[in-house]
Amino acid sequence: SAVISQKPSRDICQRGTSLTIQCQVDSQVTMMFWYRQQPGQSLTLIATANQGSEATYESGFVIDKFPISRPNLTFSTLTVSNMSPEDSSIYLCSVSFLLAGGTDTQYFGPGTRLTVL
Amino acid sequence: AQSVTQLGSHVSVSEGALVLLRCNYSSSVPPYLFWYVQYPNQGLQLLLKYTTGATLVKGINGFEAEFKKSETSFHLTKPSAHMSDAAEYFCAVSLEGGNKLTFGTGTQLKVEL
User: pLDDT tens for residues A36-77?
Assistant: First the structure.
């Protein structure tokens, strides 16, 4: 497994501003992902963070709204841009390791609780 | 595409009683199946997973789940509930091992004295 930390753990932001969330892992991982968990709902995959290249976004999510960086194998950031109250959610980073024959399990960070006023 | 259905958004059991949380999946190919638990104000923790092989999977904290292909189910059970089991439980499916998880809507488990 891996130890995953996220910063900030929570934030309250004003409409129209942007917030960058950091995800740090204590070991090199192959895959890093970003999920959103809206209030009272399940998790939805936003994108796969690719090292050194553009992230792969899921349907309904775009780079202009959720720019993602992954400069190395242990760190990624997700920015929530031009925020509105509908962006109030928990944002979770997850990682998995590539093993022979397929990938391993995904492990999740503690999440960032975002409230947009 | 795959999907997951969790029957019952809220389940309440007495302490010491059997816990049964239901999960059914839809997949065109044999899936990988997972159960995660989320305690209040925390991230997700893996309870157990099914990839291949034995269909009865044992996880942490006394939980287990059985993969039943004929019923497309992966129900989570625990023989005796404990107060500390109160949390939200998510079933998830993937066609790519640990990648691209699709989650169910979650089941909130309440354990009463």
Answer: 999 888 899 999 998 888 999 999 999 999 999 999 999 999
CB contact under 8 A, A41 and B105: yes
**Could you tell me if A33 and A14 are in contact, meaning their C-beta atoms sit under 8 angstroms apart?**
no
Q: Is A2 on the interface with B (CB under 8 A)?
A: no
Q: How far apart are CA A22 and CA A111, in angstroms?
A: 10
Contacts with A117 (C-beta within 8 Å, 6 or more apart), sequence order: A12, A13, A14, A15, A85
Alpha helices in A21-85 (DSSP H): none
Least CB–CB distance from A103: residue in B41, B99, B103: B99
Tell me how far apart the alpha carbons of residues A17 and B65 are, in angstroms, rounded to a whole number.
44
Residue that wins the pLDDT comparison between B13 and B28:
B13
